[in-house]
Write a structure and sequence with these properties.
- With 335 residues, this protein is of the alpha/beta class.
- The chain folds into two domains: 66 residues, no CATH class; 241 residues, von Willebrand factor, type A domain (Rossmann fold), CATH 3.40.50.
- The chain is 42% helix and 23% strand.
- The strands form four sheets. A six-stranded mixed β-sheet has the order 4-3-2-5-6-11, with helices on both faces. A two-stranded antiparallel ribbon has the order 1-12. The chain has a two-stranded antiparallel sheet with strand order 7-10.
- A hairpin with a 3-residue loop joins strand 3 and strand 4.
- Helix 4 runs antiparallel to helix 5.
- It is elongated, with a radius of gyration of 35 Å.
Length: 335
């Protein structure tokens, strides 16, 4: 009854019946099916399906560099604006970005009275995340163990060069790199030490000699003033709480130990750079590193796959053409 009313609303029932009789319902259904299939094919094509694949080794050249970064409390001194550590963080971010653009692999060692680190990697974002978690106010134990930091940095470079974990274990057990019988580097590895140079916990000169035997250059960056700055003290929540004093009540001063840093650099054929408020040494170190030979290595394997979207675009177009070619009305002879 409703259908009859709808047809009656369109006009004279006899004429409406004649018009409806010419509609090819089978073709209309076929068109809907064809268009639906065409849309499905186009949707798959937009997903860019791929097939097959050929492995392609992507070669690159670069340096292996380990940054040994001093995060002892003396790095909170404000003789470099806004403080030694804050200025260092900004410069390290620039250095890492530059290293990524050159294809270098970087490792990081963070140290105070002890040393911890992240092995050599090409993942610069991961290194930045690691450094963001470091804070001189929370590093334990206190002190400045340059020798331990250099030893860990050297073990990272040995591991990166040979991929032999036994050499790293040998270092941890106190054996020298000479005992591990590792051949010298080909002028493609370096350690960049960033510190105020006041070693209080270890013997860095001995590690520098081992680095020289392995052909690893050591570039030292001295941060701070020669006149000295008082060391800040912080409470348990990390807030400033005056300055550190000795038993006589005098302020404990932090001064750059340039003779030590120069000695370490010269022992390995590296260089010493001093940081002042207007000139940060990492810019100069970048230039010095450019003079080293960049080793060639296979850094990644790229899989080249063939695009398969054409297998779906062409059928989709054919289905649309067929759908448009189907007549929507019957021929007069069929009615």
């Amino acid at each position: 009854r409703q259908r009859r009313r709808a047809r009656a609303a369109l006009g004279r029932p006899v004429l409406v019946e004649r018009l409806l009789a010419t509609v090819h319902h089978g073709n209309r259904i076929a068109q809907i099916v064809l268009v639906t299939l065409a849309m499905a094919c186009m949707a798959i094509a937009l997903m860019r399906p791929q097939y097959g694949g050929k492995a392609n080794v992507v070669p690159a050249s670069g340096l292996d560099v380990v940054l040994a970064v001093d995060y002892s409390k003396s790095m909170l001194a404000a003789d470099v604006y806004p403080s030694r550590s804050e200025r260092l963080e900004a410069e390290l971010a620039r250095f890492l970005d530059d290293a990524a653009s050159r294809g270098d692999r970087i490792g990081v060692v963070v140290f105070a009275g002890a040393a911890r680190g992240f092995p050599v990697t090409a993942d610069i974002r991961l290194l930045k995340t690691y450094l963001q978690a470091a804070d001189p106010r929370t590093e334990r134990p206190g002190g400045t163990a340059i020798g331990r930091a250099l030893k860990l940095a050297l073990s990272f470079l040995v591991d990166a060069r040979r991929g032999d974990a036994d050499d790293v274990v040998a270092l941890a057990e106190g054996k020298s790199l000479a005992d591990a019988a590792i051949p010298p580097a080909e002028n493609d590895q370096a350690i960049v030490l960033l510190t105020d140079g006041e070693d209080t916990e270890s013997r860095p000169a001995e590690v520098a000699k081992e680095a020289a035997k392995l052909g690893v250059r050591l570039y030292t960056v001295g941060i701070g003033s020669k006149s000295g700055e008082p060391v800040q003290k912080f409470d348990d929540e990390g807030n400033p709480d005056g300055y550190v004093t000795d038993e006589q009540g005098n302020y404990v001063m932090t001064r750059i130990d340039e003779p030590l840093l120069k000695e370490l650099a010269e022992a390995t054929g590296g260089a010493y750079v001093h940081v002042d408020p207007d000139h940060f040494g990492l810019d100069e170190v970048r230039g010095l590193l450019e003079g080293l030979s960049r080793s060639k290595r296979e850094v990644s394997i790229e899989i080249l796959r063939d695009e398969g979207f054409g297998f779906f675009v062409i059928p989709a177009l054919l289905l649309l053409v067929i759908a448009l070619a189907l007549p929507e009305r019957r021929r007069s002879s069929e009615t």
